[in-house]
């Protein structure tokens, strides 16, 4: 039987997984954004488009670096959910 506690824990686990999957990309984007901002402040270059390209490249690099780990986490989470379906519908 599905109880409110089960639903809350299920949703919390899904949110935790989403945060874990997104963290490397967000972290790389944050670090590169800070570095570019410091560079702009030091050199007095205030070009708005200068921040986008390095961030995009950093996020793409983090996707390529962490893709095997992200896929493994998603496969593990999905298989756990699928294998436990009989327990969920009791």
Automatic annotation (TrEMBL):
Transmembrane segments: 18-40, 52-71
GO BP, sorted A to Z: bacterial-type flagellum assembly; protein secretion
Gene Ontology cellular component list: bacterial-type flagellum basal body; plasma membrane
Keywords for this protein: Bacterial flagellum, Cell membrane, Cell projection, Cilium, Flagellum, Membrane, Transmembrane, Transmembrane helix
Topology with respect to the bilayer: Multi-pass membrane protein
InterPro entries with a match to the protein in the record: Bac_export_3 (IPR002191), FliQ (IPR006305)
Cell compartments where the protein resides: Bacterial flagellum basal body; Cell membrane
NCBIfam families: fliQ (TIGR01402)
Protein name, as recorded: Flagellar biosynthetic protein FliQ
Originating species: hydrothermal vent metagenome
């Amino acid at each position: 039987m599905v109880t409110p506690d089960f639903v809350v824990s299920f949703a919390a686990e899904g949110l935790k997984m989403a945060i874990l999957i997104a963290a490397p990309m967000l972290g790389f984007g944050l670090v590169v954004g800070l570095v570019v901002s410091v560079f702009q402040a030091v050199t007095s270059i205030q070009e708005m488009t200068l921040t986008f390209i390095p961030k995009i490249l950093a996020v793409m690099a983090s996707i390529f670096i962490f893709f095997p780990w992200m896929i493994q986490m998603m496969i593990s989470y999905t298989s756990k959910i699928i294998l436990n379906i009989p327990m969920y519908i009791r």
